[in-house]
Amino acid sequence: MKNIFIVVFALFCFSAKAQQGTSAEVKFPAADPSPADIVYFPLNAPKAKAGDPTKPVIKIVYSRPQKKGRDIFGVLEQYGKVWRFGANESTEVRFFKKVNIGGKKIKAGTYSLFAIPNKDTWAIIVNSETDKWGAFTYNQDKDVVRVNVPVKTLSKPIEYFSLTFTEINGGANLVIGWDRTQVELPITF
């Protein structure tokens, strides 16, 4: 009986030691220098309390690169070339209902956003392909709509690429800002 106790005790100790060896600490990746962010329209949609009728119409998931003292448009992001509209994965927009952009009706669903920045105007692109890294595999044949919008020059630079919405009659303007550049894309619904 004493020998059985010793064997069981030894097995228990061995088992406990073996479990310790398999639970090694996981090395997590470092924080991304271009953090992910989300913006909704209406802006308060994710914070609405239970029973509040505010429901999202638009949700955009994007990464926010920083200026870090660099010249952005025309240098880092060259004029006339397709840009991923942020950093990392291509920016994704979800429309919870039909919207109208540049006179084109767009069904509810998830799309990617790209831009072609130029000095005085930008082409904002809504594309049907999602889950892509950057604009490296951008396919123009998948464009849903392209809209040219004027550039506004800001007096003070914006450090992080930033998106927000402002309400307009019958919809919202998607306001895009980075460095000393701001553009607005009207979306109606």
From TrEMBL:
Alphabetical keyword list: Signal
Superkingdom of origin organism: Bacteria
Signal sequence range: 1-18
InterPro entries, sorted: DUF2911
Descriptive protein name: DUF2911 family protein
Record organism: Pedobacter terrae
